Amino acid sequence: MTWFVGVGMYVVIWWVAIFAVLPWGVKPSAADDPGHAAGAPANPRLLQKAAITSVVAGVIWLIVYWAVNADLIDFRS
Question: Rounded distance, CA 22 to CA 19, Å?
Fold first, then answer.
C-alpha cells in the first residue's frame, strides 16, 4: 500500500466514522431558545466527537493496513 492510498483510505474511514459518532449524546435544545432551530442540539461537542472519530478511524485503518499487508485483502487481482 502506498502512502497516497493509505491517506485516502484513512480519509474515507474517517468520514464514515464521523457519521456514526455524530449522534452520540445528542439532546435537543430547549424549546424556548430564540434564534435556534428546533432540531439543533443543545451542546454538540464537535471537537470531542472529531477526536473520538480520529481515534476510531486510526484503529480501523491499522486493522485494514495489517490485513492488506498480510495479504488477507488483495486489491491487485
Answer: 5
